[in-house]
Amino acid sequence: MVIEPNVRDGRTEFDLTAAQARAQKEQKRLYVYLGANDCPYCRIYETFLRQNTHDLVPEFARDYLVVDLRSSLSVKAASLYFKIGAKSLDYKAFMDQLGDERARLLVYPSVWLFSPELKPLMQMPAGTGTFQTVPEQLEILHLVQ
Predict the structure, then answer these.
(1) Which helix (H) or strand (E) holds 83?
(2) Helical axes 53-63 vs 134-141, angle rounded to 10°
(3) How deeply is 60 buried, as exposed, middle or buried, from its count of CB atoms within 10 A (0-12, 13-18, 19+)?
(4) How confident is the prediction along the chain (145 residues), in pLDDT tens digits per residue?
(5) What is the bridge-based pairing of β-strands 80-84 and 64-71?
(6) Which domains does the chain have, with CATH numbers?
(7) What DSSP line would sit under 118-138, residue for residue?
(8) Cα–Cα distance between 130 and 45 in angstroms, integer?
(9) In whole angstroms, what is the distance from residue 86 CA to residue 123 CA?
(10) DSSP class of residue 55?
(11) H helices within the chain, ranges in order?
């Protein structure tokens, strides 16, 4: 499921409402990927996924709704928002709600794993070197920490 941002008044907002509703209906977890169209590390990760489609698609399809958030490197944390229902959270508030202990800056690519209720399932790495082998990607999908 691809989600394009709503860009208005200096805000780039991704509405996760439909993705959450679909995940609840299908009883699937959400694999939310925030990539940037001009991010070299995002291209590397996406190439890895394409090259390993045969091994990964069955794993993704069984348990996950993949949500692809389309962004660009020009979108900084201060202008990034996530909408869930009527509630809109800026990036910092979103990360705080997740209980992200790293309080990291916005890094591309970023991946979050959520339950259908949008509860975080595990702390995720971000940036360069993210899941570059099939076994690493499968460990993440199987929630192995």
Answers:
(1) strand 80-84
(2) 0
(3) middle
(4) 999 999 999 999 999 999 999 999 999 999 999 999 999 999 998 999 999 999 999 989 999 999 999 999 999 999 999 999 999 999 999 988 888 766 567 888 988 899 999 999 987 776 666 677 898 888 888 877 5
(5) unpaired
(6) 2-141 (3.40.30.10)
(7) --B-S---BSTTTT-SHHHHH
(8) 7
(9) 26
(10) H
(11) 17-26, 40-51, 53-63, 91-98, 134-141
Task: Please provide residue 85's backbone torsions phi and psi, each rounded to the nearest 5 degrees.
Answer: 65, -130
Tokens at 40, concatenated: 């070299």
The token duo for 15 is 């509405």
Residue entry with tokens 């509703």: 21
Alpha-helix runs per DSSP H in 52-117? 53-63, 91-98
Parallel, antiparallel, or unpaired for β 80-84 and 87-90? antiparallel
Is pTM beyond 0.85 here?
yes
